[in-house]
Write a structure and sequence with these properties.
By secondary structure, the chain is α/β, with parallel strands linked by helices. It has 14 helices and 21 strands. The strands form five sheets. Strands 15-16-17-14-13-18-19 form a seven-stranded mixed β-sheet, sandwiched between helices. A six-stranded mixed β-sheet has the order 10-9-8-11-12-20, sandwiched between helices. Helix 1 packs across helix 7, helix 4 runs parallel beside helix 5 and helix 9 crosses helix 10. It is globular and about 70 Å long.
């Protein structure tokens, strides 16, 4: 299948393409994706710039109808599109179907937000003067999305952008063109004016700077790596462009002596290894107090060993492959580094399955301390390390001792410790007796420190990024 770019209401081919390979079976070629050049990106930006005023002037009913229709189709096709997602990205089929359903729910939520308008009518300190405070669209928004959630993350950027009256240019990760193409294909039939939604695929290093630096793009929303995010921030700062960054985490899960062992193991197994650990909210640092440490490590190791790793499309699989060979090699190199630094590694070996793919066993690294590289740098794979601590106070200190601050969790039956951790964990999201990964679509998503920059994503808080506040004074 050919995955084309979508510019100004037209599907556009390119002379060069990028091969889309199934990470569960490298002999399975899903299709070929358009590889855009700078000229195509410029055309998409120009189209969005021309279309933005018309969509900004659209009625709430028009916006509702578009977003609701997209959400309805995504939910109706979740099995079909979930299979495409799992085939393309490598997460298990239930996870793929669940992600498509979430994308549909996101569009449904923001369909509702088009009608739940807010504003203020205020009295001035000057007699007879009326004040209205309203929100206006930002204009043209560039959206740069990663490969690990290839339909949910584009959805939670596109849906609020359209809800609040903006035009968009979507640049998805080149590893997962199929999902972006499928989502934009649905949008292309939903009743949008030409140019309101544009899809431009290709190498980020080649076309990304064009999107970020264009004077016709008013805002950039980026999800990806810290180095790329910092570069985008520098460029947006020079151009005084509105910016939203989500860049990853090194998320702690604290397990206290009083934790229910089954609950703790379940939360850590899910948080660290589901979706092959390829989540920015994954539990990569397991901070465990002395009294439960040995029992917890033994129980988690047993649960890990029982995990079924294999082709993402097969029934009963709990963990699919790593997304590609490059990511797999990076994961294996971090395991070597952890061992060289004194960690004790169990699991983590490359696996062979009936089909050739990028398979590895989940890995647990014990006997680590928080200064090791395995505990300082984001790995983005099914690898978790265990840090033994003496008690709650030390656990909280270690949890906060990181350059990241996306998600943090604690397993405990103590209301005192749970409440204190919720207030004092330096993270944008805190989980108690739940995995650090897995959030709802109607609440804000984002972190602190090196994990995030700018307004939150999702929920009603999305309005802070996709709109600008206007204050109008009237003397009748």
């Amino acid at each position: 299948m050919d995955f084309k770019n979508f510019i100004d209401g037209t599907w556009v081919t390119t002379s060069e393409t990028i091969v889309n390979v199934n990470p569960s079976d490298v002999s399975d070629i899903i299709g070929h994706a358009a590889k855009a050049d700078a000229a195509q990106m410029d055309r998409a930006i120009d189209a969005a710039h021309r279309a933005a005023p018309e969509w900004a002037a659209s009625t709430p009913q028009q916006r509702f109808d578009v977003l609701d229709a997209v959400g309805t189709e995504l939910l109706a096709r979740k099995a079909e599109l979930g299979r495409l997602l799992s085939r393309e990205e490598g997460k298990t089929l239930p996870e793929g179907i669940g992600e498509v359903a979430r994308a549909g729910q996101i569009f449904k939520f923001f369909a509702g937000e088009t009608l739940r308008q807010t504003g203020d009518r205020l009295a001035s300190v000057r007699p007879g003067v009326e004040i209205d405070v309203t929100r206006s669209p930002v204009g043209v928004v560039g959206l740069i999305t990663p490969w690990n959630f290839p339909i949910a993350i584009p959805a939670w950027k596109i849906a609020p952008a359209l809800c609040y009256g903006n035009a968009v240019v979507l640049k998805p990760a080149e590893l997962v063109p199929g999902c972006a193409h499928a989502l934009v294909e649905i949008l292309s039939r939903a009743g949008l004016p030409d140019g309101v939604v544009n899809l431009v695929m290709g190498r980020g290093s080649e076309i990304g700077p064009r999107l970020v630096e264009s004077p016709k793009v008013d805002a950039i929303s980026f999800t990806g790596s810290v180095p790329t995010g910092r570069g985008i921030a520098e460029s947006c700062g020079r151009h005084l462009k509105k910016l939203q960054l989500e860049m990853g985490g090194k998320n702690p899960m604290v397990v206290l002596d009083d934790a229910d062992l089954d609950t703790a193991v379940s939360a850590c197994l899910n948080g660290a290894f589901f979706s092959t650990g390829q989540r920015c909210t994954a539990s990569s640092r397991l901070i465990v107090t002395d009294g439960i440490h040995d029992r917890f490590v033994a129980a988690l190791s047993e649960a890990m060993a029982a995990m079924k790793v294999g082709n993402a499309l097969e029934d009963g699989i709990q963990m699919g492959p790593v997304v590609d060979e490059r990511q797999l090699q990076q994961n294996l190199s971090y395991i070597d580094i952890a061992a060289q630094d004194g960690g004790k590694v169990s699991g983590g070996e490359r696996l062979n399955r009936a089909t050739e793919g990028f398979y590895m066993a989940p890995a647990l690294v014990t006997e680590t301390d928080n200064s090791m590289r395995i505990n300082r740098e984001e790995v983005f794979g099914p690898i978790a390390s265990v840090i033994r601590v003496g008690g709650y106070d030390e656990a909280l200190q270690v949890a906060n001792d990181t350059a990241f601050g996306l998600s943090a969790g604690i397993c405990t039956t103590s209301l005192k410790h749970a409440s204190h951790f919720r207030q004092n964990a330096r993270a944008g999201m805190v989980m108690v007796n739940l995995p650090t990964a897995g959030v709802d679509y109607h609440v804000p998503f984002g972190g602190t420190k090196g994990s995030s920059f700018g307004p939150r994503e999702q929920g009603r808080y999305a309005a802070e990024f996709y709109t600008t506040v206007k204050t109008a004074y009237t003397l009748p």
